[in-house]
Specification:
Layout: H1 6-18, H2 36-45, H3 51-58, H4 62-71
Helix pairs in contact: 3-4
Length: 97
């Protein structure tokens, strides 16, 4: 009839008797929207803050902050600082066996 196994149907009956049949799957949740003005203002004031600190200040998860920064095209990478002597080449060592 439902192309379900006998075991599945018995499990559904037990859940229905306990009153938990409707709550099997996750409930619908709304998305969290980050206030773009608040985020850009905080990042402008605290340019060296980690994403964990930004997420605490805004009240969002780190992953949400990461996606919002990417959407706003705000880079979190630090620029290389040049030295007076210029960039030195790395020396590779060759080991003899």
């Amino acid at each position: 009839m439902l192309d379900a196994s006998r075991t599945s149907i018995l499990r559904w009956e037990k859940r229905a008797l306990r009153g938990k049949l409707a709550a099997i799957y996750p409930k619908k949740r709304g998305g969290f929207k980050v206030d773009d003005d608040k985020l850009t203002a905080y990042v402008a004031q605290n340019s060296d803050a980690y994403q964990s600190k930004i997420s605490e200040a805004i009240g969002a998860k780190e992953n949400t902050v990461c996606r919002a920064l990417k959407r706003l095209k705000i880079s979190r990478k630090e620029r290389r600082r040049s030295t007076e002597n210029g960039m030195k080449k790395s020396v590779s060592l060759i080991y003899k066996r």
